[in-house]
Amino acid sequence: MALSVGRLVLGRAASVVVVVVGVTALTWLSVNALRPDLRAGDDRLIFVALGDYLQSAFIHFDFGHSATGGGRAVAAVIREGLPVDLALLLGGMAFGLLAGVAGGAYCAARPGTVSARALETGAALFMCAPVYVVGLGLLLLFGSGLGIVVERGLAIPTEYTPFADSPLRWAASLLAPWVVLGLPVAGVCLRMMRASMTEVLEQDYLRTARAKGLPRRTVVRRHAVPSALAPVFSLTAVTMPVVITNLVLIEQVFSVPGVFTGMRKGIAAGDFDLLFGLTAVAAAFVAVAGLVSDLALAWLDPRMRSS
Predict the structure, then answer these.
(1) Domain spans, the chain
(2) Which tens digit of pLDDT belongs to each residue from 190-232?
């Protein structure tokens, strides 16, 4: 089993590298093919120039310099903003998964109740509502210095606090972004978990467990929930590109100094070195999410390891 798990990890890790390099290469080729003036004075074949760029970017971690960032190295921009984005992404995904799984299990175990209907309505609402609308609404209601219904000590911070300055204030400044980022994920996971749980609860082995006298809560928590999780993890990995898009918007709304803070200016000014670097980061986020999903599925279902 250890050998099969090791082969799975190595295979998926190799696919992550291929995806990140491939997406970056396709983006570079598309831009340079549509804008040949970017290569003015460069007499090399375009694929030779691409090979040199990929070597510099992924071997020497040199993505060039950002014109909109005052000539700073794009690699430095990524190094400074990446920890913030990782914290925001991990916190938002953790909240979304936990809330969605718990809500979906509750709705499946108590179908048709008022509370289940309320959770399902909330899930549909947060799946449709743009994150920048939800984020701005929270700030206008509870934002420090902005909110109209805030109470002393309960306001949402409107400025990001670095972890090194104060871990507690850092967590407080990211709490609202975590919730806003995780709410659409929670809505998707709730609907999938409810459907999966409803199917699992009708399986013969769970009927047998209930017939033998096991409490319904025990059957749901120990047997039905683990069996219903696999589709939820798969769906979460599929929705990762949308999560990254929401991450970019949340950085703007809550002034979080992540990697994608300068994307809007970069697009407007044609800062392609910066945009290529951000493309590689976004592709890495999506590919790594797929890797984590595959590992979680292998842990839940031994058949995945053997296949």
Answers:
(1) 2-306
(2) 999 999 888 887 777 777 777 777 777 777 777 788 888 888 8
The token pair at 206 is: 């769970």
Q: Give pLDDT tens digits for 22-58.
A: 999 999 999 999 888 888 888 889 999 999 999 999 9
* The token pair that represents 282 in the structure block: 């976004």
| Tokens found for residue 259 | 């990697």
CATH number of 2-306: 1.10.3720.10
Torsion angle of C-alpha atoms 291, 14, 278, 86, degrees rounded to 10: 40
How large is the greatest C-alpha to C-alpha distance in the chain, in angstroms?
A: 80
Cα–Cα distance between 126 and 142 in angstroms, integer?
A: 19
Per DSSP, the three-state class of 31 is helix
Give me the mean pLDDT over the 163-191 stretch: 92
**Token pair for residue 163?**
């972890």
Rounded to whole angstroms, what are the CA distances from 228 to 8, 121, 139, 218? 22, 21, 36, 15
HEC sequence for 138-185: HHHHHECCCCCCCCCCCCECCCCCCCCCCHHHHHHHHHHHHHHHHHHH
